[in-house]
Amino acid sequence: MDLRKRPRLNNEGDLSPPSRSTAAAVLQTEIKTLRAELEHSQQIRSIERKNADRSEQRLRRQLADALEEAEENKDLIDSLREELDRFNEQMEESREEWRERIQWYEEQWEEQQHQQQLDDVGYNDSVVSNKKCVMLEKRLNAKDNQIEALEEQLRAALQDAAAARQELHEKVSEQQHQFTTGSGNGGSG
Fold it and tell me: Which pLDDT score is estimated for 189?
């Protein structure tokens, strides 16, 4: 119960209405109190609006930065894919070239073997050709091993890029959620 609306008791316990000057003083005090509360409330709302505006601007900047980073990562991944395609083409060309050389040396070696059976004079040449064939086979095997290692490194790089893209996507989603949540609270405050 509001004490201002309740009549006061005099010394003998009689109920008497409050005097006009007392009522006016109470009303003036109440008006001052309400004005102070209104000003305080307006100041708080102003501060809340400023904070909400700052938060919104910060979230917009973060979102723009995250989107820019995502675009840069996408460009990097595209560049890596193009480089991988070029590398694969070069490796395939190199592999084919080595196969052709080995085949040619094997044919030469077989021809030398056949010639040796016909003539012992070509013995030294067939040994040299055989050594060249073995050497080329070793080189081809080394190139194959190198290609496999590079392909493994590329797969690992692509997995890392995919993980980075997923992490970036999650950050952007989280920031968008914070932005929409922050805008919703700022508008109702």
Answer: 43
Q: Which amino acid is at 165?
A: R
Taken as a whole, the chain contains a residue count of 189
By CB atoms closer than 10 A (0-12, 13-18, 19+), residue 82 is exposed
C-alpha span between 91 and 155 (Å, rounded): 16
Please write the tens of the pLDDT for every residue from 6-22: 555 444 444 455 578 89
Element (H, E) at 34: helix 20-118
> Chain-centre distance of CA 88, in angstroms?
28
**Cβ–Cβ < 8 Å for 130, 109:** yes
Region 27-48 average pLDDT: 96
**Contact at 8 Å (CB) between 172 and 70?**
yes
Amino acid identity for residue 119 in this structure:
D
pTM over 0.70: no
Task: Provide the Cα torsion 62, 63, 68, 71; round to 10°.
Answer: 140
| CA–CA–CA angle 164, 168, 172 (5° rounding) | 175
Tokens representing 47 are 């501060």
Three-class secondary structure of residue 13 per DSSP: coil
Residue owning tokens 């209104």: 38
